[in-house]
Amino acid sequence: MNPLQRYLPLVDDEEAFLEACDRPLPYSVRVNTIKTTVDRATEALDDEGVGYEQTDWNPEILRLTEGKAGTTWPYFHGWLHGQEEVSALPAIALDPQPGETVWDTCAAPGSKSTQLSALMDDEGFVVANDNSLGRLSALRHNAERLGVTNVAVTNKDARNFSLKPFDFDQFDRTLVDAPCSCEGTCRKNPDALEKWTMDHVHSVVGIQKGIIRRAIQATRPGGTVVYSTCTFAPEENEAIVNHALETEDCEVVEFDTPLETSPGITEWEDEEYHPSVEKTHRVYPHQNDTGGFFCAKLRVGGVAESEEGEA
Amino acid sequence: MSDEPSNDGQRFDRLPETAEEREVPGRATREEVLDWWNERFEIPPETFDEYTFWEKGAGKVWVLRGDTANPISVEGLGMTFLRTRQEHWKPTTNAVQRFGREATKNVVELGAEEATTFAAGEDQELDWEGDWGYLIAAHDVAGEREPIGVGLFLYGELRSTVPKGRRENLDALSE
């Protein structure tokens, strides 16, 4: 079964949605501001005759229009990292600040972790975790090539992640870019549609619930958790956020996205979700000519230390 | 079994500040690391004021922005930085790309063709009047000098130490 049919009732333009899912994905790169500036990186691409256009929503994301960036000098210097445009969204939503302590629960191969470090000016502490030892080497390789020095790499199951090794007992912000059924990547990996089964959705949902709960528990009162996936399945998106609302002390908060998005849904098949999940964002491929995506921002309950005594 | 503190390959230990504080035999000190970068490349010690240095595995030193619990058992901490516990210490390609811009000594500036040879991991003859040993190979890109990696200069030859996974066959930039 082609899972895309399931989601047609959710999209505004079925034909545009299906057409976009069938087109190959534009190739894009992120400028790594730890090692260079946008000006220098684009000058280096100009010198090598690689065509690009800056996305109108983020000057650090470049869509390549001619040639490839992988075998160029700016790539060799670690000034560029191949990263799908829409996958830059969760790190921007998390909005980490220099000096903060940040956890990336499912970090390999490191595109979002290294983006977090760049957003923090490589100051503070990023714990980049992944439970797959095999994928960890790609994460390490990318972090080193991009010159990231504020990262600790761990190889644990995020669902029962322990902060024992560290000299702090909670994170300021946590990113859960969860393992998912990935139909949103179909423009890059058509396999994702062929291999899709409802059984897989059900099995991955349990993991997603475990990780989002641990993420909220490990994040300080008033801190931020961002949950993202590259699936359209409400079972893996709104339903997971709804589960977090029912089981942990947190709330969904609004955030601006520079991309065109649709609000999270509150009803799916026989399920109803908390009305606040409308504040989450769904990204369909035809909206911005990207992959498909889901992104939610949560505020962890309780009073932040900085707010104590203010009220 | 000896009771002497020893290097544990499974965890990261912060380098001691000075030789007086050294407990693990053979471990480099922070002072020695700073001196080495300063003497070899004239990279000022203040460059690393905000960083700490760690050893995991005999002689492999990592650089971390900030500080953390000591010792710490994690898979990676900051980035690999310097190979010690051998006669000639050797910086990593990634460390030189990250911090080598500050260097004013033992930096060899390569022309466009030489730079592509170097990035491909190939050795080449080189006219160099300076020190033998590990050099920072750099070239001009986008209007400024940029470190490419670590070269070993011996007997008129510059050997590229760019690791296999980082080697690329790149086009020569026009000069």
From TrEMBL, chain A:
S-adenosyl-L-methionine binds at C106, A107, A108, P109, G110, S111, K112, D130, D157, D177. SUPFAM superfamilies: S-adenosyl-L-methionine-dependent methyltransferases. Residues 17-301 form the SAM-dependent MTase RsmB/NOP-type domain. InterPro entries: MeTrfase_RsmB-F_NOP2_cat (IPR049560), MeTrfase_RsmB-F_NOP2_dom (IPR001678), Nop2p (IPR011023), RCMT (IPR023267), RsmB-like_ferredoxin (IPR054728), SAM-dependent_MTases_sf (IPR029063). Pfam families: Methyltr_RsmB-F, RsmF-B_ferredox. The keyword Ligase does not apply. GO terms for biological process: tRNA methylation. Keywords: Methyltransferase, RNA-binding, S-adenosyl-L-methionine, Transferase. The keyword Methyltransferase applies. The active site is at C230 (nucleophile). It comes from the Archaea. Gene3D superfamilies: Sun protein, domain 3 (3.30.70.1170), Vaccinia Virus protein VP39 (3.40.50.150). GO terms for molecular function: RNA binding; tRNA (cytidine-5-)-methyltransferase activity. Belongs to the class I-like SAM-binding methyltransferase superfamily. RsmB/NOP family. This is 16S rRNA (Cytosine(967)-C(5))-methyltransferase. It comes from Halogranum rubrum.
From TrEMBL, chain B:
Residues 10-28 have a biased composition (Basic and acidic residues). Coiled coil: none annotated. One of its GO terms (biological process) is methylation. Keywords: Methyltransferase, Transferase. InterPro entries: DUF7122. GO terms for molecular function: methyltransferase activity. Residues 1-28 are annotated as: Disordered. It comes from the Archaea. Residues 2-78 form the DUF7122 domain. This is RNA-binding PUA-like domain of methyltransferase RsmF. It comes from Halogranum rubrum.
